[in-house]
Amino acid sequence: MREASVGFQCPECVAEGNRTVRQAQSVFGGRAVATPRVTWTLLVVNVLAYAAETLSPGPVLNGFAMNSGAVAYGEWWRLLTGAFLHAPLAGGVYMITHIVFNMWALYAIGPELERRLGSLRFLALYLLSALGGSVAIYLFGIAAVGASGAIYGMFGALFVVARRLGYDARGVLWLIGINAVLTFMIPNISWQGHLGGLITGAVVGGIFAYAPAKSRNVFQWAGCAAVFVALVALVLLLPPYVYQIQIGLPG
User: Fold this and answer.
1) Structural domain spans, the chain
2) pTM of the entire structure?
3) Mean per-residue pLDDT for 176-192?
4) Torsion over CA: 186, 192, 194, 198 (sign)
5) Three-state SS for 24?
C-alpha cells in the first residue's frame, strides 16, 4: 500500500490514476521539459566526437566528414556525421574557436527551444537542420565539417517561434545578421551549410509553431517527414556541382 492524500492506495490504483492524469505539454505540443536533456546530450556528443577527431584526425575525417564526392559515391552517412565534427586542431590552435562558437550557441539557444518545442521535436529540428546544411554543401560540391547547419537551423526556428508567440524578434534578426556577415568575412567558411540549415530550421520551426491545434501531432510529424523526404530527394535527383576532396571549414 502507498500513502495518499486520503488514506492509503494500492500500487495498482496509483498506476491507474497516473494514466488518467493529463501530461503537461510545452507550448507547441511536446511534453513539458524541465531539464533540456537533448541539448546537453548533443553537447556531449559533439565534444566526444571532437575528442576522437583530435586523437585520430585522419581516420575520423576521412571516414565521416561531409564530402560531396564521397556522398555521391554512396557514403550517405556523411550527410549527418559531418555535422558532429569540427575544424581539427591540426590546422592550428585557433581552430578550436570553431567548436567553441557552435557549442556556445547550442548552450545559449538550445534549452529555450527545447522547452518551447519539447525534447523530441527539438531533436527533430536539430537533425533536420543539420541535414539541410549538409544537403546544401553537397549540392555545391564541396567538403566541410561542423554543426553550423544545425545551429543556423536553431536561429531560423527561434525567429519563427518568437514571431508566433508575439515576442520582439529583432534580437534574433540581429543575431542572424551578425553571423551572416561573419560567414562572408571569415575565409573558408561554408555559407552553403549556413544557408541550408537556416532555411530548413525556419521551415521546420514554422511546421511546429503553426500546426493546427486539432491535428497538431499529425501535422507536425507529417511535415517533418515531408522535409526529410524533400532533402533526400535533392541528394538523389541532383548531382553535386563539382567534386572536391579537400576538407573545408563551415564556421
Assistant:
1) 34-237
2) 0.84
3) 74
4) positive
5) coil
Q: Of these residues, 68, 119, 148, 190, which one is catalytic?
A: 148
Identify which of 123, 83, 80, 122 has the alpha carbon closest to the alpha carbon of residue 231: 80
Q: What is the CATH topology of the domain spanning 34-237?
A: Rhomboid-like fold (1.20.1540)
d(CA 4, CA 227): 47
Distance CA 124, CA 230 (A): 15
Helices (H), 21-92: 37-55, 57-64, 68-72, 78-81
The amino acid that residue 224 corresponds to is C
Q: Is 86 a catalytic residue?
A: no
Which has the minimum average pLDDT: 8-12, 86-90, 138-142? 8-12
- Alpha-carbon gap, residue 146 to 251, rounded angstroms: 7
Q: What are the residues facing 9 on neighbouring strands?
A: 2
148 is a catalytic site residue: yes
Higher per-residue pLDDT: 144 or 44 = 44
Whether the per-residue pLDDT at 1 is higher than 80: the answer is no
Averaged confidence pLDDT in the chain? 85
Burial of 133 (0-12, 13-18, 19+ CB in 10 A): buried
